[in-house]
C-alpha cells in the first residue's frame, strides 16, 4: 500500500525592510511615534539593520546617530506588538518582543545626552557608570 504524505506548507517569507514598502512602513512607525520624519540616510541604515545587516554609521556630531538606535528599537517593538504590519510576511527571526539594547558610550556626557532621547521616544533607559553605581551603593547602604 502506498502512503501519500503531504508536506507541511512553507512558512511565510521573512519581511524585508530594505525595499520601498519596508522603508515606507519604517517611516510611518517612526513619524507616528516621534512626530517627525527621519532623515533619508537614517531610514537607509535602519532598514538595512532591521534586515540583519551590520551597520557602521560615520556622520558628523549632531547628525542623528542616536536616532538610528532609537528608531531601530521603535520599529522592532512596533512590529512585535503588531506582526500584521508585515502583511503576509513574518518578522525577521532576530526580532524579539521585548528587545533591549546595550549602548557603550565613551563619555558620561554622551550617556547623559542619549538617555533623554530614548526616554522621549518611550524607551526606558538605565545609565551605568561610576557615578550611577556609586549612587546605587550609597542608597543600598541607607536602606
In what range is the share of β-strand residues?
under 5%
Number of domains: 2
Instruction: Show unreliable segments.
Output: none
What Rg, in angstroms, do the CA atoms define? 20 Å
Find the structural class using helix and strand composition.
mainly alpha
Number of strands: 0
Description:
This protein has 143 residues and is mainly α. It has two domains: 10-100, no CATH class; 102-143, no CATH class. The protein is built from five helices and no strands. The chain has helices at residues 20-34, 40-50, 65-81, 108-120, 130-142. The protein is globular, with a radius of gyration of 20 Å.
Task: Outline the fold blueprint.
Blueprint: H1 20-34, H2 40-50, H3 65-81, H4 108-120, H5 130-142
Domain DEAD/DEAH-box helicase: 42-124
Organism: Lentinus brumalis
Protein name: DEAD/DEAH-box helicase domain-containing protein
Summarize the structure.
This protein is mainly α. The protein contains five helices and no strands.
Task: Write out key terms for the chains shown.
mainly alpha, 2 domains, globular
